[in-house]
Write a structure and sequence with these properties.
CATH architecture of the largest domain: 3-Layer(bba) Sandwich
Number of strands: 21
Structural class: alpha+beta
Number of helices: 13
Shape: globular
Distance between the termini: 25 Å
CATH topology of the largest domain: FAD/NAD(P)-binding domain
CATH superfamily of the largest domain: FAD/NAD(P)-binding domain
Low-confidence stretches: 462-474
Length: 474
C-alpha cells in the first residue's frame, strides 16, 4: 500500500504528486494515457495567469489581486466561489519558484502572442515541456508512475477512499487525489449536456475537442453516482472558436483563430451575430466557441482584410484568400448577396478614430446591430481572408465540490482522505467563461494543496494544517 495515490497525469496531478512526495509520502501516479500522450490538457497549454504587485522576472508592471479578481468576476458573470477564487489568485503569485525547482522554465511572451505580458507567465517550450519537466522531477524523487492505467471505479466507505481499480486490479492507498480531468472527449455526454436545439440539431455533433482524447469523464461519472457533491453546469466549458478544419482531438492552441477582434464574424447565413470588439481578446476569446455553438450548423466565419495581417498569432491552417469580397463569399460557400449586404453595412457604419489593438480604442460602429465597440475598421483592402470556425471544447466545468483543503464532499461533509484538483473541481472557480491562463492557476494551486493534505493525512501528522501553511510548503 502506498501513502498517496494520484489519479491523473496532467498539471494538477503532477503538482499533487510532487507535493506529497516532498512531504515524505510514498506516491503512485496513474495516467490513463500511454506515455507518448501523457499530460492531459496541460500538454496543450502555454502560460499561467499570475498575480503580482510589482514587476517580477518575466512579468511586467503589476497585476494586483483585486484586478485579477475583477477579471475573473467579469468572465464568470459572478458564478464563482470568491473564497476559493482568491485562494487561487494569491497562490498564483508565489508558485513560480517552486515550479522552477522542478524544472519548469519561463520566457517573455513571444512576438504575436496575446497581449498578456503583464498578466501571464509563459512556459519555455509550452505545456509539453512543463509536463515533461514535472514527470522527470517526479521520477527522480521516487514517485511511481504507471501509464495505460485508466481507473474506472473506486472503493469508498463512509466518504473515505479505500481503493481504486485499474483493469480489474485493486490498488489501495491511505489517501487519494483525483485529478483525472473532465468529460470533454465523451461525445455522448456532451450530447446529453447540450441536448437538441430549436432547429432540431444536436450541437455537440459538430464540436471539435481541442484538448486530450483521454478525458472521458469515467471517474467523474462514478463520483456523481457515488453521491459526491457536484458543482457546475454540464454544458459550460472552456469552449473556443477554432478552425473548422482542425482534427477531432488534440488540436491544441495552434488551431485557435485569433483574428476575430480584427474583423467580423458571420454565420452560415452570412450575418453577424455578436460584437467582435467587446473587450481584449485574452478576456473574451473563450466566449466565441459557445457563440458559434448557438449558430445554425455550429459554424461561423472570421473575415479580415490585409490590414489585419501581422497583428495576430497565425493559426496552423491558412485562411481562404480572395481578391474581392464577392469571390471570398463564393469560396466560403456563403450567399453572395447577403454577405455583401452584411459587409457593406458594416463598412459604412465604421467610425474610425485612432486604431490601437493594444488598447480599448475609439474605432467603433454606429447604427448597426450588433455593434462593434472597438477596433472597427472597414474591411476594404485586398486580399481578403476567411477562416471557418467550429466550437472547440478544451475542458468541461462540471465537477466535484471542494473546500479550501481540496477535500471531496459527500452530503456537505468533507472527506478526510479523498481530494480533488484540476478540471475535476475547476467549476468551483469557473462557473462559466474563461480568461487566459487561469485553468493552470487553478490546477497548480489545488494540485499543490491536495498533495499536501493527502500526505499529511497519510503520514498521520494530525489535523490538516491551515491553507496558508500548506501553500508555504516547499
Amino acid at each position: 500500500m502506498v501513502d498517496v495515490l494520484v489519479i491523473g497525469g496532467g498539471n494538477a496531478a503532477l503538482c499533487a504528486a510532487l507535493m506529497a512526495r516532498e512531504a515524505g509520502a510514498s506516491v503512485l501516479l496513474l495516467e490513463s494515457a500511454p506515455k507518448e500522450w501523457r499530460g492531459g490538457n496541460s500538454q496543450h497549454t502555454r502560460n499561467l495567469r499570475c498575480m503580482h504587485d510589482a514587476p517580477q522576472d518575466v512579468l511586467v508592471d503589476a497585476y494586483p489581486e483585486e484586478e485579477f479578481w475583477q477579471d475573473l468576476l467579469k468572465v464568470t458573470g459572478g458564478i464563482t466561489n470568491e473564497h476559493l477564487a482568491r485562494l487561487v489568485i494569491r497562490a498564483s503569485s508565489s508558485c513560480r519558484d517552486w515550479m522552477r525547482k522542478h524544472g519548469v522554465n519561463f520566457q517573455p511572451p513571444l512576438s504575436g502572442a496575446l497581449h498578456v505580458a503583464r498578466t501571464n507567465a509563459f512556459f519555455m517550450g509550452g505545456g509539453k515541456a512543463l509536463v515533461n519537466a514535472y514527470f522527470r522531477s517526479a521520477e527522480s524523487l521516487g514517485v511511481q508512475i504507471r501509464y495505460n492505467a485508466p481507473v474506472d471505479r473506486l472503493d469508498l466507505k463512509d466518504g473515505r477512499f479505500v481503493a481504486a481499480y485499474v483493469k480489474g486490479e485493486r490498488i489501495t492507498a491511505k489517501a487519494c487525489v483525483l485529478a483525472a480531468g473532465g468529460f470533454e472527449s465523451n461525445i455522448e455526454w456532451l450530447r446529453e449536456a447540450w441536448g437538441q436545439n430549436e432547429r432540431g440539431e444536436w450541437p455537440a455533433d459538430n464540436f471539435l475537442i481541442r484538448g486530450t482524447r483521454f478525458n472521458k469523464g469515467v471517474l467523474l461519472r462514478f463520483m456523481m453516482d457515488a453521491g459526491a457533491d457536484i458543482i457546475g453546469d454540464p454544458s459550460q466549458s472552456h469552449c473556443v472558436a477554432i478552425d473548422a478544419r482542425a482534427p477531432l482531438y488534440d488540436g491544441g492552441i495552434c488551431t485557435r483563430i485569433d483574428c476575430v477582434s480584427l474583423g467580423v464574424v458571420v454565420n452560415r447565413d452570412a450575418k453577424r451575430f455578436y460584437d467582435e470588439g467587446e473587450d481584449f481578446w485574452p478576456k473574451r476569446y473563450a466566449i466565441w466557441g459557445r457563440l458559434v455553438a448557438n449558430q445554425p450548423g455550429q459554424i461561423g466565419y472570421s473575415i479580415i482584410d490585409s490590414k489585419a495581417i501581422g497583428r495576430f498569432m497565425p493559426p496552423v491552417f491558412p485562411g481562404t484568400t480572395a481578391n474581392t469580397l464577392e469571390e471570398l463569399a463564393d469560396k466560403l460557400g456563403l450567399d453572395r448577396a447577403t454577405f455583401m449586404q452584411t459587409l457593406n453595412e458594416y463598412n459604412a457604419a465604421c467610425r474610425v478614430g485612432k486604431f490601437d489593438h493594444t488598447a480599448l480604442d475609439d474605432c467603433h460602429t454606429e447604427g448597426i446591430a450588433p455593434a462593434k465597440t472597438h477596433w472597427a475598421r472597414p474591411i476594404d483592402r485586398a486580399p481578403f481572408y476567411g477562416y471557418p470556425l467550429r466550437p472547440g471544447i478544451t475542458f468541461t466545468y462540471l465537477g466535484l465540490k471542494v473546500n479550501d483543503k481540496a477535500a471531496v464532499h459527500f452530503n456537505g461533509v468533507p472527506s478526510d482522505n479523498l481530494y480533488v484538483a484540476g478540471e475535476m473541481m475547476a467549476g468551483n472557480v469557473l462557473g462559466k467563461g474563461y480568461t487566459a491562463g487561469v485553468g493552470m492557476s487553478i490546477g497548480t494551486a489545488f494540485g499543490r494543496i491536495a498533495g499536501t493534505q493527502a500526505a499529511q493525512f497519510a503520514l498521520g501528522q494530525g489535523k490538516n494544517t491551515s491553507m496558508g501553511a500548506s501553500l508555504e510548503t516547499a
